[in-house]
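Our preliminary data section would be incomplete without showing what the modeling component actually yields. Below, a chain of 151 amino acids is followed by its predicted structure, encoded as tokens that our downstream tools consume directly.
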Amino acid sequence: MVSRMFRLVTEVDRTRRDLLRTRLRDTNTAASSVLRSLRQTPHERESPLHVWALDESGDLAGGLVGHTWATWLHVTYLWVDDRHRGLGLGSALLTETERTARTERSCAASRVETWDFQAPDFYRKQGYEVVCVIPDYPPGITEYTLVKRLV
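Predicted structure:
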């Protein structure tokens, strides 16, 4: 029945993607008083948060890329060059990012996704707790979602 009424198209279309995102946001906002309360506040939209570690030559030694939204910090990427690992640089990047999120953006919590061969133990040592484990994502790898209260 559905196929008689609609034409289903499989293609990458940025214009439709943006329209879909807008319509979904509007639908969700209408359905959720929590999301409605974010409207017209600094927490309404994602705000990028990047912290960089530069070595004595000004080259990238490490960095953290994330964003804040709705009082949450979301750590997207955290990386430290092999030459600088084991010196506490990853911890310093994460600590500075959390401090900025907490003090300048009123974030109360942080989240991160990491794979089993990356850094779940690092984040646990930083006070994060595992809240989700997805085995075989991708096949042969386990993905972890971890969270931490910042206040």
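The mean pLDDT is 95. The beta strands are 47-54, 60-69, 72-80, 109-115, 129-134, 143-149. Preliminary results of this kind motivate Aim 1 of the renewal.
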